[in-house]
Amino acid sequence: MTATMTIPVSQPDISELERKNVQSAMDSTWISSSGSFVNSFEHRFADLHGTLSCLSVSNGTAALHLALLGCEIGPGDEVIVPSLTYVATANAVKYCGAEPVFVDVNQEDWNMNCEQVKDAISNRTKAIIVVHLYGMPAEMSRLRTIADQYGIFLIEDVAEAPFATRDGTMTGTVGDVSTFSFFGNKVITCGEGGAVVTNDPEIAARMKLLRSQGMDPNQRYFFPVIGYNYRLTNVACAILDAQLDRLEEMLNRRQRLFSRYEQALSGLDVGLQMSNKNITVCPWLFPLLITQGENTRSSIIKKLREQGIDTRPFFYPIHRLPMYTAARTCGSLPITNQLANWGMNLPTSSAFTDSETDYLIAQVERAFRQ
Ligand SMILES: Cc1ncc(COP(=O)(O)O)c(C=O)c1O
User: Fold this and answer.
1) Among the atoms of ligand 1, which is closest to the Cα of residue 193?
2) ∠268-313-333 over CA atoms, to 5°?
């Protein structure tokens, strides 16, 4: 049987408002990295996080690199990161000449294990990067206490979980610096883009300098340091500004799809994300665990693909990638290995039509129940 529809794992939600803003940026001729949309987006995003500063940047990887440089991480330093994350989290550490040290995640929330973080701290440790994986906010109060106790930086990688809350605290508001991605599969997007937010004026100033080729803010075309071109354009910020206007509507639509998945999968032997009244996840790409193992996961992925539905297996553990096999890890990271074998993400977007959603849910029920 041939599939009657094609559903990507994610789809950007672009409305008339995004088009209107882009047209207005074009009409103004401010299409490079200055302009009213850059200012508007950066101010609004900083306000949403209650931070002194927000810098828009070219992508989430650049955001991580700038965050680390803003904390003056360099050669000889170690940074503690989870192994179960997108590869950019660890790569950014290497860009600085520092070494990532990998820790395991918790069985419950799939986020970095605080006990292991403490065990991994050495006299070279300069920072922790906590990743709020697959929309789930991590235990920020414990991590903040650990970072303060050892006098090291705490960086939040919020790429997959903007606007999630745990115990009344929103992601991106506790770290010394927090980083965001606006890639096409993210909850808000401008195609390629990112942001860094911080309350520390010195970190903010260093990141601002480095974002723009290291040009001295008081002397044009004098470059006291080697910087980067990590700026984002006014056209991209025009899209982001519209996405912020539509944020609530888009999150609600994604949340409704999450509820339908939960209903469709209820009573089945699958592992869902931890849930309790103190946690509001970010409805990014619906994650679940196929606890029967990798073969069953492959057959479900295949069945859905045959019906035109794209899915994603969880990330491959970074400590097992060729360039990181010699990196220091905190033990053998058994939970990371297990989740990587069992986990998958189902398509999620606020742009899916009602008939696409109905088709998707019917096919998911069929693939999991037969
Ligand atoms: C956890 C995490 N960190 C960083 C990134 C990198 O973001 P970008 O693709 O915008 O460079 C991603 C993205 O895809 C991510 O999922």
Assistant:
1) 10
2) 95
Structural domain boundaries in the chain? 16-245, 247-369
Distance CA 48, CA 27 (A): 28
- Report how far ligand 1's centroid is from the alpha carbon of 143 (Å): 21
* Model pLDDT for residues 16-38, shown as the tens digit of each residue: 999 999 999 999 999 999 999 99
Instruction: Say if ligand 1 is within 6 A of residue 180 CB.
Output: no
pLDDT digit string (tens) for 125-183? 999 999 999 999 999 999 999 999 999 999 999 999 999 999 999 999 999 999 999 99
CA-to-CA dists, residue 189 to 23, 186, 242, 249, 266, angstroms: 17, 6, 10, 15, 31
- 16-245 has CATH 3.40.640.10 classification: yes
Q: Is the CB of 61 under 6 A from ligand 1?
A: yes
Yes or no: is domain 247-369 CATH 3.90.1150.10? yes
pTM over 0.70: yes
Contact call for residues 72 and 153 (beta carbons, < 8 A): no
